[in-house]
Amino acid sequence: MNLQESANLYALVLRQLLPAGVYDTSAKTTLAKDIYAHALAFAQADLDAKRLLNVITDIPVELLPEYERDYGLPLKCTLNAAKTVQERMQTLKWVIDKKNVLNRLYVKELLVQFGITLLELVNYKPMQCTAPCTSPVNTDVLRYKVKLKLKAPVNADINCIIENYLPAYIRYDIEVI
């Protein structure tokens, strides 16, 4: 999308944001010219931002604390160990890439962030074929369960990790081997 098309889209949206019946929203008024000038500035800023993001390959070290604050880092439940800039950068990139994902790889990578090795993840799906349609699901007996087999020693607080980073509708059974 070029600058002209982007400016036209911004102008269209800005005109729609005007209060209904108060201003003339046609394209031939002085107000429309003012809106188009602002839309052109927005489009230029948007285009410049895209160009900058294409040029920047890595997060500048100077902006690392700001990025960490925006993404909720340092992670809760971590040990009080000082991390190098490189380790902080890797954690930040992992958090940016892994937003709202729940699968085996995510659980494994999440536990690695806390220094825990996942040996096996066993999941159980509850089934009750003979029950009537009105019987409750997700009870204590039929709860969706996941068994995490972890390699000893586990130095991090696994309950804190489960509480903060994994869904609450799943029951987690922990086995340390």
UniProtKB/TrEMBL annotation:
It comes from the Bacteria. This is DUF2313 domain-containing protein. It comes from Acinetobacter proteolyticus.
